[in-house]
Specification:
The complex is a heterotrimer of chains A (255), B (396) and C (366). Chain A has 255 residues and is of the alpha/beta class. Chain A is 40% helix and 24% strand. Chain A is built from 10 helices and 10 strands. In chain A, a hairpin with a 2-residue loop joins strand 4 and strand 5. In chain C, helix 3 packs across helix 6 and helix 10 runs antiparallel to helix 11. The chains are: A alpha/beta (255), B alpha+beta (396), C mainly alpha (366). Chains in contact: A-B, A-C, B-C. At the B-C interface, helix 1, helix 3, helix 4, helix 10 and helix 11 of B face helix 2, helix 7, helix 8, helix 10 and helix 11 of C. Chain C: InterPro entries: AA_ABC_transptr_permease_3TM, ArtM/GltK/GlnP/TcyL/YhdX-like, MetI-like, MetI-like_sf.
Chain lengths: 255, 396, 366
Amino acid sequence: MNEQATQAGTETPMVEMRGVNKWYGDFHVLRDIDFEVKRGERIVICGPSGSGKSTLIRCINHLEEHQQGEIVVGGIPLTQDIKRIEQIRRSVGMVFQHFNLFPHLTVLENCCLAPMWVQKQPRREAEALAMRYLERVQIAEQARKYPGQLSGGQQQRVAIARSLCMHPDVMLFDEPTSALDPEMIKEVLDVMVELANEGMTMLCVTHEMGFAKTVADRVIFMDQGQIIEENAPEPFFNNPQSERTQLFLSQILGH
Amino acid sequence: MSVRPQPHPVGPKPPFWRDRAKRALIFQVLLIAAVAAFLLYIIGNTQANLAARGITTGFGFLTNTAGFGIVQSLIDYSSQSTYGRTFVVGLLNTLLVSALGVLAATIIGFTVGIARLSPNWLIARLANAYIEIFRNIPLLLQIFFWYFAVLRTLPSARDSLSLGEVFFLNVRGLYLPEPLFESGFGLIPLTLGIAVAASIALVVWNKRRHEATGKRFPAGWFSLALILGLPLLVLVATGVPVTWDVPQLTGFNFRGGITIIPEFLALWLALSIYTASFIAEIVRSGIQAISHGQTEAAQALSLPRNLVLRLVVVPQAMRVIIPPLTSQYLNLIKNSSLATAIGYPDLVSVFAGTTLNQTGQAIEVIAMTMAVYLTISLLVSMFMNWFNARVALVER
Amino acid sequence: MTIQEKMLEARPAPKSTVGPVAWLRANLFSGPVNTVFTLLGLYLLYLLLTPTIQWAFINADWIGTSRDDCSREGACWVFVNARLGQFIYGLYPGSEIWRVNLTFATFAGLIAWLAIPRLPYKRWVAVATLVGFPVLAYFLLYGGHFGLRVVETHRWGGLMLTLVLAVVGMVGALPIGIMLALGRRSQMPIVKSFCVVFIEFWRGVPLITVLFMASVMLPLFMPTGVSVDRLIRAFIGITLFQSAYMAEVIRGGLQAIPRGQEEAAAALGMGYWKRMGLIVLPQALKMMIPGIVNTFISLFKDTTLVMIIGLFDLLGIVQAALSDSRWLGFALEGYVFAAFVFWVFCFSMSRYSQYLERKLHTGHKR
């Protein structure tokens, strides 16, 4: 069955969630989440803090475990099976709010780690690949430095390159710019825009509404663990339907 | 002090007691004078006291005959040996119990520390109980407990506890069989050496192969099999050229085999268990110091669990763990001096105890004893500086 | 386009993920390996606890006056009971014990005042504890003034001596430690190297050798004919030893104070001692308290070593009682009692320092 689903090709959604529910202890974080991401689609998720948006994307690569419902990534249903989780993670790249680069490894080693140990590439190949991606995020000249020697924006670009080295089918961005100083946000967003223009499937949790307007195919607004509104960026920003969305947008665009 | 080097101010010179540089100079000169005066005072007193007691200073006593026995010695020693030799015997005994203590404390400490982080609630609680109990009871009390309440209440030699009539435990100590090697035995260490060399070569080759082709195989397990298997194979092939000298009960005591005195056992147990509780806490906080984000990032790159630990968590945790760990080792070495309370013949017990009492050369003996510990401390802190400089995470 | 106007109510988590059964499954039986560990742990607990409880409580004898009142099947707490006075007060004369009690009650009151966050005038109470209390304790415990009879130090012992040693060591070490720490940060090369050598020397040698030194070398250093009380010798050794460790704790605290604080004080025209005494040290001391408590715990445990130079602290007096021919064979009871007393003190202090550390950390988070 899975075989068939994969062979159906472009028609299979990249990520599919049906009736997903999650609790932290007694706290109901995700409530009846239903949505799908098509291949090549770029989605921005926004919402007030604590609305469950980070939890949502962290469920996709099983950094968080959901308790009810179904998640299918690239045609593979997510279960407790470790092999399957690793298989899914290979096709899902993730960029974190706090970069999470490995401080004991150089930039280049950070990028080569997974290709060498997971995809069993020779070091030379892995390094060539890493250099290619580091050049794309315009940081190749820092390859021999350690993360601690880089600025926040540079670190986040390295983190993006590190994920790209695994040739992911979809990239998850968990508030990639909220830990950055204002002057560094642009350099990271530029890389993300470029990535979007190349056709990467992307799911971004972010408050950068400018980014959402220019890049997103769809914008999703979440509150209290559920998807409140989902629309193309233009109607979403110009004509929000739900009261909560209106309130949120007025707060975030107000200043 | 935020006194920064400043350009010399222009303008009228201040009086010398308000000039910062001069004030520092005067203060330091006064300090030197005070220390010197204090030293002169005690040296004078000491000379007078020594003269009054008829004690001559100097290290000449080290060549005199000691005239007392020592229950455990790693080198040849009899009561005819010199005081100098008692120093060496004591030092070696200190090093012996310290080395074995460090080994055991590390094993117990890492096990308990990792167990403390176990997802299994019961195991984590048990590990925590171990830590909280043993680190909050004075070491000397623990030594006494093992020595007087456990080992000294064991049955006499006739009623020894035994394991398979080969190992015996009684109030006089632990008796182990001693291996006696026959002529063909030389082959075994030789094959062991070959196996170790082969394993190293294997690991290096595996690393190179991984770099070059991306492929690798579990070299660690192969090496282990090689190191254990090869000597064993040779041992069997040569017909096991070892005989065991099993301790025998003759009269009131055991003859033959290896004897481990209860003083050693008690000190070793207490030192290991006590220090392990601190090491466990260091290991726990070291692993916990690695932020969860590191593990998550590695998992998101689809590294399997064992590689997350090996490539991301352990290398970072070890940087946090090793400095406090070495200072615990140092503490263990210093704490081994508590041996003197139960009569294990360590440096303090033999040299700063018996030798000092017999010769009365307090200053020389205490100075030599302290010098030993200071040297060890110095070596360890030199290692720490080297280590920190080498592995410290590069920050801006 | 989807719009969800109606908000979903939060539902309780499915039964399988909350409640005691789910807790058990998640924490004790989450897989075959974990189940095995849990069972092994339970078995270990059973092996350890059953004989312990039987020995210490079920089969134990509590009431009586001599060893004949003990059945020998379980613990003979009669022994501890009969010796309790000695274990706590040493050989302090019975009619004067109120002086010890008063001293400790005062001390407990002061410490409680310092430890309870709500109470005011912390600084004055701290000064009273560090300066006033030792003087008061001296007059009360030693006597010789105000109509109190002198109780020679060789009669001091037990828990009382342990506490006296630890507190005196601490109170003596604090000012020396502060001076050493300041000296080590000094830019005067001779002052700095003197402090470094002093600190590293005491930290590099075991306390036993220090006590040996204090007991055999100190008499040599004194003018001929002057003898020093054995307890004073121990005090000197312990204080010097402790001050080196204290200095390192204080240095750590000083390093945690941002440079700007001192610069701001300097900008206000304060001299070195004012900058340190009014601005830097008060802030640093607050951050050092957990570290100071931790060194106090080590010191408290280390005071047991004085028995090696012939003083009878709690462990020493227990050890001495064990060789009493009327009470032979109760080593276990004696050690368990002493261990319990030490443990209660050290454990509660370490909990307190952990609590302070947590409080400090949350206070400094942005």
